[in-house]
Write a structure and sequence with these properties.
Keywords: Signal. This is Solute-binding protein family 3/N-terminal domain-containing protein. The protein is an alpha/beta fold. It contains eight helices and nine strands. Helix 2 (about 45-55) crosses helix 7.
């Protein structure tokens, strides 16, 4: 009798709340790139995407991987997406679908330790030794240099520069300034103007194509109500 009563109560609860189901959780590849993306999920972009997913009725779980591996696993369907890439990758990675609203803009900068180095365009790098992150497609497509050193992480990249092993490194402005400060790299500076300014996008594996527009709408709404700007500036969500 008690078992029947418990079953009846469960049935009544389900009937009373028919729309309450657990949100779909997507595993999104992310490269460790403070202050934008962090392994603990507290990077500025992590917070932006976490809220965008919630507004779309979804959940995101960020999986920290090297840049190139994250992209390949998203394309292969081992991950559900990749968090922050330039436009146009769907031409090469045919299983990826780009969310049409951008996450943010990246200023791709050359950073130098020597005051004698001048860089104003990609062409100025041809005579220099250059370091960059493996898997950054905009760099791989545009860079022509005297020598190129590729590394997996931003910390490796800036230690390479500080150690005098390359003339310049290429990274985005916000992240580069973070590493210059946290590593205490005296004299390292971004060289103006930026090599490129590009909007950055979330990509989903094609099996989630139907979710791209709800996520784009959520990002647009966050920009309209000021939430996007607040999180990008470093504001933390309320506990």
């Amino acid at each position: 009798m008690a078992l029947i009563l418990r079953f009846q109560l469960l049935l009544l609860a389900l009937l009373a709340f028919p729309g309450q189901t657990s949100a779909e959780t997507l595993r999104i590849g992310a490269t460790s790139a403070p202050p934008i993306s962090q392994p603990d999920g507290n990077g500025r972009l992590d917070r932006i995407l976490d809220e965008a997913f919630r507004r779309a009725g979804l959940e995101a779980r960020f999986v920290t991987l090297p840049s190139e591996r994250s992209l390949r696993e998203a394309d292969a369907g081992m991950l559900d997406g990749d968090n922050n890439r330039v436009a146009g990758l769907e031409a090469t990675y045919s299983n990826l679908v780009r969310v049409s609203e951008s996450n943010m803009n990246y200023e791709f900068m050359a950073f130098a330790a020597s005051s004698n180095v001048r860089v104003e365009s990609w062409a100025d790098l041809e005579r220099l030794s250059v370091g960059h992150i493996v898997g950054w497609k905009i760099v791989e497509e545009n860079l022509r240099a005297a020598s190129v050193t590729k590394v997996a992480t931003a910390e490796e990249l800036f230690r390479l520069l500080a150690g005098g092993r390359v003339d310049v490194v290429i990274y985005h402005r916000l992240g580069g300034e973070h590493y210059v400060n946290t590593l205490g790299l005296q004299g390292v500076r971004p060289l103006e103007p930026p090599l490129a300014v590009r909007p950055m996008y979330l990509y989903l594996n094609r099996r989630h194509e139907a979710l791209a527009e709800p996520l784009a709408q959520a990002l647009r709404a966050m920009k309209a109500d000021g939430r996007h700007a607040a999180l990008l500036a470093g504001e933390r969500p309320a506990p």
